[in-house]
Amino acid sequence: MTRHNITEKNQGKSQGFTLVALALGILVCGAGWAQQSDWQVPRTPEGQPDLQGVWANNSSTPLERPEFFGDRATLTAEEFQELRRQAEEIRASGGDALFGDGFLNAVISGEVQSYDPATGNYDSGWMVDRNLENRTSLIIDPPNGRIPPMTEEGRARAQQRMSARLSPTDSYLGRPLQERCITWGMPYIMAGYNSYYQIVQGKDSVAIIQEMIHDVRIVPLGEKPPLDERVKLWHGDSRGWWEGDTLVVQTKNFSDKSLFRGAGENRLFTERYTRVAEDVLQYEFTVEDPSTWERPWTAVINYTASEDPIFEYACHEGNYALMGILSGARAAERAGQIPTE
């Protein structure tokens, strides 16, 4: 295994990387993919842009911008330098793994929030190197870098879902889809943990393989008729086409059980894959759902090329958590106790 650890518990950061300090300068890094002037997008034998390979999403940039940055999309040079220093400090401190936005949050606050405080977190051995970028959010639109407010309908629906939610210990149906090895949904955007994709191209289709649960999306290219709108799928129904050197994929027909940030079956998802350097694939997505948000929103993630293969994701094998959780709940009931999640 060649993926390396990177981030860790910040126990030694007592100096407190406060929000004020952050405002003075903190994060980021340079993805550093300076493109050579003579570089050209590689082509497949069919003449299409070649996007094939294994790509990693290990960005340290959070999806949403911390509010104190306002509309500022990038860090200053001083902030970037400070970010790198803090990243090295975190790396050297050892401790818990920091997935997703946890890395940046630890740098900003000086405190590590455990991913799983109930049973204990993964340790740093599970972590890969994070890509430090001079950006304050993955979201590029709206200008404040944050997910737009929910509509009144969206808030009411979220409340209804919460009210109808089954007890997490009454049945396996009360457990999340990820825990039941069904899907992590589309897109899976948490960085630093099984956050790798493999793209395989054919003339008339593209396969996008996700390391997490090994979900595979087969995207037909061209003018294939869409599915009947009554057919709903975990990852929706995708159609793709080329716009210059960019692969555009549009997806709808999502199952209402496969949620993304509160949006369900009504969302329209548009992705744009552009190879901007030999080792960088720019992934842009826009989500539209007028029944959930006041406006569409767009984010950009810079995937980096990986020489490593997609690793096995053994979910069902050896997964005794589901049986253990429910068995523990029944044992608690027999003992006259109230089961906890």
From TrEMBL:
Superkingdom to which the source organism belongs: Bacteria
Name of the protein: Uncharacterized protein
Organism: Pseudohongiella spirulinae
